[in-house]
Amino acid sequence: MKPRSSALLVGLAFAGFVALGLPGGALNVAWPSIRDHFALTQDAIGTLLLTQTIGYLVASFYNGRILSRLGIGPFLLTSTIVFGVGLGAYALAPTWWAMGLFGLVSGLGSGAIDAGLNTYFAANHSPSLMNWLHACFGMGATLGPQLATWILARNLSWRWAYAVIFAVQALLGAAFALTLRRWRLGQPASQETTPKPTDVRLLDTLRVPAVWLGIALFVGFTGLEGSAGQWGYVLFTEARKVPTTTAGTWISVYWASLTIGRILFGIAASRIGVTALVRAGMLGMVCGAALVWWSPTILLGFLGLAMMGFSVAPLFPLSISDTPRQVGSRHAPNAIGFEVAGASVGLAVLPALAGALAQNLGLETIGPFLLVASIPVFALHEASIPGALRRRNTEPTA
User: Fold this and answer.
1) Which pLDDT score is estimated for 186?
2) What is the DSSP letter of 192?
3) Number of C-beta neighbours around residue 16 at 10 A
4) Domain tally for the chain?
5) Rg of the chain taking only CA atoms, in angstroms
6) With 60 as the cut, is the pLDDT of residue 392 above it?
7) CA angle centred on 365, ends 247 and 213, rounded to 5°
8) Is residue 396 part of a domain?
9) Which of 107, 89, 108, 109 is nearest to 99 (CA)?
10) At 386, is the pLDDT very low, low, confident or very high (cuts 50, 70, 90)?
């Protein structure tokens, strides 16, 4: 049986995911101001996303190794400090290239927090609680656009958004420091039959077929989630001439839909099953993307965006929670790190590709991009279901 953590630790983990969602949500609205401040082109955001991704990849890829050496408490505290340093540097960056460099630091911290808390919840908690953990990310991503909109509406610099988020991260770091010794990962019942994460080489985990399939899925659905959130505001304000405050509110609705979806899917997870919920989310994502593209009225376009947020809600948490069953508990810490790394690649590559298309072919390419990208992701998930593949997902023998 998995050990129960105190309500304090669960609440602190939830707060950690709220803080994790804040900067991405704020960037959705702050980007036009950042772009104009540094005299950039539309697709320059790819530079920031790339450096964040490099840091995220490094932290996620070595999640299992570092976690086993530091322990979960010190790991989370160190990650929070690094993330806070990156966010504080955003608020002070003198040039665009300096901000891009600080993105590497921010990515290291956020990737480590993401992978660490996901590993902790996969080891200690149910799929329902995992969904609620990720609902907290949605809460942060919902508050981020509102924070940036509020600041910009008062003619303040976009830098203040990152200063506020830095302060939140500092408080979170203090809380992790005060609870340092309380954090524990669940231990397998038999240490003789189940090696510790340090005994499992990264290459051994990469030999498990399900790991590669999981990585590909995380690249796809997380990249789509980020693309819709990042470019929805610019699409509706600059291409469809919607007032900035209205568009900012609807970007918050997008993230709020994701949050509500994760809460509701968390309740349904134990009753319906992972495969059925993920399939429903994939189909809803495709339909929402089609509606964003078609958009016969502005309202229906916004509703399509909200539908995408609600539909993508269960994909990350349910897939993470299902990882120990898919790959085995001995590979789970490494595999979860790989999946989070795949998610970071998706969050960088797909929004950057969408930005490049928008820069060269016009902002209205965002809608068809979302639809065309969502179809193969759904097909990939369906290909992962047959029992023949699952039976091949055994751990490699020596």
Assistant:
1) 60
2) T
3) 26
4) 1
5) 20
6) no
7) 100
8) no
9) 89
10) low
